[in-house]
Design goal:
- By secondary structure, the protein is of the alpha+beta class.
- The protein contains 7 helices and 3 strands.
- The chain is globular, with a radius of gyration of 15 Å.
- The two termini are 20 Å apart.
- The N terminus is likely disordered.
Length: 152
C-alpha cells in the first residue's frame, strides 16, 4: 500500500505498538515518499548512524571519536569479530540518554532520505539501553519521536 507520508494516526499507532512490545526488537518502518527510490529492509540502529552523528555524540560525552577521522580509522582497522564487537560497544556507549537516541534517530532518518532511501526498516535493541542503565522504553519512544521528526 502506497503511503503519502507520515500521519498522526500512524505515529500514535506505532507508539502503542512500542509500549506493547517493550522488550522485543522493535523495527521502525520509515517511509519518505510514496514511491521509494531505494529501500533498506534491515538496518541496525547503532550500526547505521552517520559518522557526523557519531562525532557529535562523542563530543557530548568526551569520547575520542569526536576527533575527525578517529571513528573511520578504527572502523577501517577492524580485522576480526572481537574488533567489530569492541567498536560496536564503543558506539553504543555514545548513546547516553533518550535525547541522544532522539537526535541520532532524526539524523539517521534525514541521512537516509538524503541518500535516496524511500523506505527503511531499522532495528533497535532495548537490551542495549538497559545494559547502559537507561530506561529502554524511554529510549525507544525517543527513537520513535526522532524518526517522526526526520520524516517531516
Amino acid at each position: 500500500m502506497a503511503s503519502n507520508g507520515p500521519t498522526a494516526a500512524t505515529s500514535t499507532s506505532r507508539r502503542k505498538e512500542i509500549k506493547r512490545a517493550r522488550f522485543i526488537y522493535p523495527a521502525f518502518k520509515i517511509t519518505f515518499s510514496a514511491v521509494p527510490l531505494l529501500a533498506d529492509c534491515h538496518l541496525h540502529f547503532e550500526g547505521s548512524l552517520p559518522v557526523g552523528v557519531l562525532e557529535e555524540l562523542a563530543r557530548r560525552s568526551g569520547h575520542s571519536f569526536a576527533r575527525s577521522g578517529e571513528f573511520v580509522a578504527r572502523r577501517d582497522g577492524i580485522r576480526d569479530s572481537a574488533g567489530f564487537l569492541a567498536l560496536f560497544a564503543d558506539v553504543c556507549r555514545l548513546l547516553r540518554s533518550p535525547d541522544d537516541y532522539a537526535f541520532a534517530a532524526e539524523s539517521l532518518s534525514r541521512a537516509l532520505a538524503e541518500d535516496g532511501v524511500g523506505y527503511a526498516e531499522v532495528y533497535v535493541s532495548p537490551e542495549i539501553c538497559t545494559r547502559f542503565k537507561l530506561d529502554a522504553l524511554a529510549c525507544i519512544e525517543a527513537v520513535d519521536a526522532g524518526f517522526a521528526a526526520g520524516e517531516s
